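Record format v2
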Amino acid sequence: MNPENAVELVGVDILYDTTALHFDCAVASGGIVAVAGASGSGKSTLFHVIAGFEEPDRGEVRILGKTMSGQAPSERPVSVIFQDNNLFAHLDIATNVGFGISPSLRLSTGDRVRIDDALGRVGLDRFGKRLPSTLSGGERQRVALARALVRHRPLLLLDEPFAALDPGMRSGMRALLRDLHEQENNTILMITHHPDDVRALADSVLFLDQGRIIAHDPVERFLERRDVAAINRFLGNE
Amino acid sequence: MFAPAENRITITAGAFGLGGILLFVCLAITALLFQSGDFGDDALFDAYIWRVTRFTLLQASLSTLLSVALAIPIARALARRATFPGRVWVLRLMALPLGLPVLVGALGLIEIWGRQGVLNTALAGLGLKQPVSIYGLFGILLAHVFFNMPLVARLFLAGLERIPSEYWRTAANLGMPPAALFRFVEWPVLRGLLPGAAGLVFMLCATSFTLVLTLGGGPAASTIEVAIYQALRFDFDPQRAIALSALQIVMTGALLLVLARVATEPAQSVTGGRASRRYDAETGLSGLSDTGWILFALVFIGAPLTAVVGSGLRADLMKLAGDPTVRRALLTSIAIAVGSALLCVGIATAMIRAAGTATARRHVPPVARAFAGAVTASSSLVLLVPPVVLGAGWFLLLRPFGDVARFAPAIVVAINALMALPFVHRILAPAMATHAARTDRLTASLGIRGFQRLRWIDLPALKKPLLMAFSFAMALSLGDLGAVALFGSQDMVTLPWLLYSRMGSYRTADAAGLALFLGLLCLIFTMLGTAGDRRVPEGRNA
């Protein structure tokens, strides 16, 4: 058990009717880790196990050295941003961010200042009263980031956060994420299908293939790998 | 979904709902079985029973055939004419019978087709004597077509509107004649929808009660449901009621089995509004035929409705509104409707949520799978054991405890709630599944639970389907005559029962006024629930 590690997966098995996934890895605290692999390789399941949406059939999940067995998702030191549906469509932006401070929305004046501050940090000052439907896809993801900021969890899981964004927005979001990461000093695990995200943002890469983690490398080494066909396909080397 | 303690509460609440339904239905069936005693040799093979069964199947078959046969050209005409002025009002008119109490529709049909009706008066003016009689098989068929043809036409129209626009362009490019277009483009779509739509209409007509009671005109034109009612209320012959109930359950069970095999999922979006350009609509002949069919639909559906409004407005509405009996009936109807809608929506919500929670895991245990299956099946149990059979069972069960009328409010509320359950389940289940898929992980991750989740997330997001389900259940209960017919008494009179009584005692002006009240009340509730939403659940028991 190493408290220096943000996440440890020890002999984690996830059994489905026709397939089985196996995860063994340790992710050090403080970096941005890209989680990559083909569709169906197990990336989302890996996230669900860490976030507590799924319990492993065997093995153990540890976050910051503590075992997470039986811990509800909200009790884990983890914030999650999904590909979409991160905001409650009927509630305004400030209220959506407010859930990051109090799940029952009991918010003090100080809390409201924190919400405004978080929205300012993601470039959405004065958006608090607007409904999610009036925002662009990129703006909605920024709101979810603002909520993650006010939650102050040491581990942030991002499930393809840029998937629905155009290239210009992707680039802006990458820069924002990098800035916030440096300010918060948290650990970020980010699922991505884009080698550009890996190059621009990641410190290291977890690469999955057919339900197994087949590579866990610093980004420079990962980008130079030519020995695994699945990685070559991901990087566009073939 | 991801907190074990909350999951247990959710599943327990759903299990209570399921248990309540099963208990209510099983007690009624048990009462029927235990009271059957000595059937005698002839109880099940009584000539009357077989005649009633034959008539039930015959009228249901003919009603289905006519409804489908008329729905096809009307749906085709509306699909071809995608943009004429007033099209949306034609579609709205075709949705009206769905929200209308059956008794009100029947009264409208009598206004047009009855002895003193518009049609007979006009024909009499031409020197013909009583050419049309609405009572008997003809009236039953007419009424069933009035209620079900628009439903089938809307289902078919939705199917035709889903045909990709490339098909029409290709057909135009190839120069397909109308017959080939129908055979190769339209018919494959209609054929896919036909078994489900026809099965649904057959089921609704085979279990029809109010229309047959009102327009049957005597024992010669009686269905099983009406015969059960007559056996209990007029002949005091429980044995016959039991035999008929058993027959009804066997018949509906067989029908449901067939329906489950042939039914296809009906379209949710009945009128998309973005129809493709139809090149075959640009010939004079098709224009003439389409106009004819659309006009026919307008008159066939619109005339009885207009007649209800017209004769209702001619009644002394102020006197009716001041009549204590009417006011009491109105209050009783509203109280029963609110009670049954609350019960129905409450049970449906608890069961759907519980089924979702029980099966939302990677390894779903067989017991959870069975529970979810039982929830879905139990919501449609009233289709297998119709309201009159349930009422008959409870009538016999409660008889030893004195005057059954004492228990009437509770039993009527429960039966009405069960009656609405298939429709309410159909409205709420997809909405709740989508909502759960969107919010379960997010709320779990943020720790939003219990009452806070209900207040901030579930109620605001599900407000629309909940309101729609509630208003639909209320409208269904407000218009119901089946449960009240068995249990109604001088102490418990509802608006439909009062309307039926006034029709029976030839107080036609009063009946017309009451029909207008009742129709408006139901339409207001249906419209409140469907405001801003074009989707309406398909089918209701006529």
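Chain B is about 75% helix and 0% strand.
Residues 210 and 481 of chain B are 6 Å apart (CA to CA).
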